[in-house]
Design goal:
Layout (H helix, E strand, L loop, with lengths): L1 E2 L5 E5 L4 H8 L11 H9 L3 E5 L1 H7 L7 H6 L1
């Protein structure tokens, strides 16, 4: 989910933990495992803040089941 242009916000719904996400954003990780440089550059040039959420885990914890992750992300 992306909101706004300059100074916008990007919400990444993922099941990965902090260590796995760090590899995803890291230049030194394998090419297949990382976010493309042009995306990171766009985020940086436009001052976009990246937030992460594990909506699947939250949905399960509050009893909505696995299929409810999209509803939690949109809420």
């Amino acid at each position: 989910m992306f909101r706004g242009g300059h100074h916008g916000q990007f919400l990444l719904n993922t099941i990965f933990d902090a260590d796995e996400l760090e590899k995803f954003f890291d230049e030194r990780s394998g090419k297949a495992e990382r976010m493309p440089n042009k995306v990171k550059r766009y985020f940086a040039q436009n001052n976009i803040t990246v937030y992460t959420i594990n909506a699947t885990k939250i949905a399960q914890e509050i009893g909505l089941g696995r299929s409810a992750s999209r509803r939690v992300t949109l809420a």
